[in-house]
Amino acid sequence: MKFIVDSMLGRLARWLRLLGYDTLYYPDIEDSLLLRIAREDDRILLTRDTHVIKVRGLKKYFLLNENKTFKQVKIVINSLNLKDFSIMSRCVICNNTITEIQKEGIRGLVPEYVYQTTAVFKRCSGCGKLYWNGTHPEKFKKKLSEILA
Questions:
Q1: If DSSP codes are grouped into helix, strand and coil, which group holds residue 124?
Q2: pTM of the predicted protein model
């Protein structure tokens, strides 16, 4: 399932990416371009804008009335029956996939303590951001459990 979110839902986009969903987000995009991308890429538009959904020909959209990010996440997951999470498989910054890389190639790019104590590293195929299993993934999984409870 692929999404595009409007400029009001940046935090939701980040959470969907953390869950492994292909989610486009442009903070300063015109509505006409947003709709064109949604149609051309066959994406579900997630929006809070009631005017956008009135555009003719828009078939795949989900209107959110909730302001709070965690409630938005829960509503989207439950309403669209999202189950197959691929946690930490997409870059939260640019939405590209992240893949495991050789540890030896990143010495000096991460703190020495992290390099010495971590076995597995991943890199974004788009922006090059490095990822590793520190405390953030565990906090994320815990928060996700709380959201879905």
A1: strand
A2: 0.90
3-state SS, residue 41: coil
Domain tally for the chain?
Answer: 2
**What is the C-alpha separation between 54 and 32, in angstroms, rounded?**
12
Amino acid at 68: K
In a domain, 84, yes or no: no
Residue 18 DSSP code: H
Q: Is residue 39 part of a domain?
A: yes
| 40-12-143 Cα angle (round to 5) | 140
Q: Within a domain: residue 105?
A: yes
pLDDT in tens, 106-147: 999 999 999 999 999 999 999 999 999 877 777 888 888 888
Residues 68 and 102 in one domain: no
